[in-house]
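Section 3.1 - Work completed
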Amino acid sequence: MTRRTVVVSGTDAYDHELPPLPRAAPDMDTVAEVFRTLGYEDGDRLHNPTADGLRRGLADWARRADRSEDVVVLYYTGHGERDDKGHFLMCRDSESGQLRSSAVESERIVEILAENGLTRILLILDTCYAGQGAVDALRALAGSLASPAVDAGR
């Protein structure tokens, strides 16, 4: 049976130099409510996660049930940054000068969901440089979907 689920995550308080974003939690609630009115179930709500907490939280949620037929909306709000290699979601413990080791690449969150069988994903990024994040995530999802097709053709 196909389920429609909304997963919201966001960061409004940071351990390091990033300024707080007081609208993050209310925006998470608003987005979840909008999708509930459209018939979506509540998935996880990850508020102020660490980078590792965001990755693990999404993976744990995705593994809890067979979600291969599900439609998932994933909303993230918080600071976003980029470098010459891609877009990063800034989590509670992220540092601007240490993106690769302390933040979460936008493409990685889509890969985590795809690794757990999810392929119908609407990613909404409410961050700076979200356009770059969307391109990175789409590229990652396309790669995840192409790999099984290539393997099946062998």
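Second construct:
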Amino acid sequence: MTEFYQHIVAAEEEGHRLDRWLADRLPQLSRSRIKALIEAGMVSLAGETIRAPAHRVKPGDAVHVTVPDAAPAIPQAEAIPLAIVHEDEALVVIDKPPGMVVHPAPGAEAGTLVNALLHHCGASLSGIGGVRRPGIVHRIDKDTSGLLVIAKTDAAHRGLAEQFAAHSITREYVAFVHGCPQPPAGRIEGAIGRHPVDRKRMAVVTRGGKHAVTHYASERCYQDGSGAPVAARIICRLETGRTHQVRVHMAHIGHPLIGDPVYGGRRRRARDAGLAAALGRLRRQALHAARLGFRHPLTGENLQFSSALPYDLVELQDVLERSGADAFHPRQDS
């Protein structure tokens, strides 16, 4: 079904590029999809079609966007480099970079992990996920980095899917959040479903959502010179795997992920100058799938994998350490 959107440019947004401005307001669309819509004449200002993604918006502009139905994307093999952590005849573990979509979708038909896997594995991918999701057992968001396991055979796919369904797979994320959670460690339980107003977002809901549980523990908290909490590095362990689970649950308890354009992190004004500078350079939510553990679906061997923080989150962490903020390790028994 064709969808229509209208947004008004605020005074403080004068001079922003049209494509980037729209990306902040339509987070459900990829940047490549937004660029394609602009170039196809699907965006207008005051009745005038704008085809230049770099067009600069002005305060008060009423921007109209038409998003037509897109044809299903059929993935093609592409020679995209992959960071392979482990591979055998049944599965492959990938360290996905930020910015890579897992499988093709409208507006993101190329450059995905599936495109890269088709080139690397050829026909040796599980077909259970269908023609557009070969080998895909689970997903992480486009702008979340880290570990994914891919099934190369249907038997491996079924074995891994059973472990996901039983919540027996270890999945731990490193996240950087605004403020310092209190208590510093805890359990978040809240059903996740579509936001009651904005259907493109997820939220903790009282009716109709899927059961979701996240365990978090603060590894490091940062305060400014006045003792006010600035940010925290936390570990999140998933019992369940719902869409945007870590992002939604941390925002729900008042500590959204730094850099998150959908759930409030990017819009928070940083009081600490170092954090403000790092935020200006961070183009995604500060979330990394750092640990993945499961039983090999064919041999039964217990496999554990870890992934170091990528460069952008290392930079964020370094800025927090150097910014003059007082860093401390929280007490887990407080």
